[in-house]
Design a protein that fits this description.
With about 190 residues, the protein is of the alpha+beta class. Helix content is about 60%, strand content about 20%. The chain has helices at about 5-95, 95-110, 135-145; strands at about 115-120, 125-130, 150-160, 170-175. It is rod-shaped. The chain starts with 6 loop residues before the first helix and ends in an 11-residue tail after the last strand. InterPro entries: Extracell_DNA_Util/SecSys_Comp, PilN.
């Protein structure tokens, strides 16, 4: 039998397999790199799209916040105008109140009762006067209670007169109905 040396052939086959292994390894590395690059590009595009949507939403939210602020300002202006209108209406309604009060005081003061002073404090009137008898003063209190404009008569005191024994001094508080005290300034 002839002697055949198979070592160079095995060596050549090993080198060929090594080349194939390296070329397959290089191909796998390139495919892996391309796959990572494509996936990274896809996620970058999605991220940019989401960021654009977020920016759009933030811009729209800013617009809505400005509109809400404008609406609040308009509501404050509206409330201020409504308060002014109510105040003007109240002033218009109470324009003749002084005359009406004086007219009503004349109606409720019976003969024999003499007023020395009237003083208005807010929606109350302080009445100082003299009376010929307590019955006439009681009649005045009943008339005040029946009045549509005056109410809540409160007799503070009755004192017999020092200078004149026939007349008694009195002090009475009366409240004016339907009249709110205008407090503060117009807005």
């Amino acid at each position: 039998m002839a002697h055949i040396n198979l070592l160079p052939w095995r060596e050549a086959a090993r080198k060929e397999r090594q080349k194939q292994y390296l070329s397959i390894l290089t191909a796998v590395a390139l495919v892996s790199f391309l796959l990572v690059f494509v996936v990274s590009s896809i996620y970058s595009a999605r991220l940019e799209g989401q960021q654009k949507r977020n920016q759009y939403l933030q811009a729209e939210i800013a617009k809505l916040n400005r509109q809400i602020a404008e609406i609040r300002d308009l509501n404050e202006t509206k409330n201020s105008l409504q308060q002014r209108m109510a105040l003007i209406s109240q002033l218009q309604g109470s324009r003749n109140l002084g005359t009406q009060i004086m007219d009503e005081v004349v109606r409720v003061v019976p003969s024999g009762v003499y007023l020395t002073s009237l003083e208005k404090k807010g929606n109350a009137i302080l009445i100082n006067g003299r009376s010929e008898s307590n019955n006439r003063l009681a009649n005045m209190i009943r008339l005040v209670e029946d009045s549509e404009l005056l109410s809540d008569p409160l007799l503070e005191f009755i004192e017999t007169g020092r200078s004149n024994q026939l007349l008694s001094d009195f002090k009475m508080h009366v409240r004016v109905q339907g009249f709110e005290v205008l407090q503060g300034e117009m807005p």
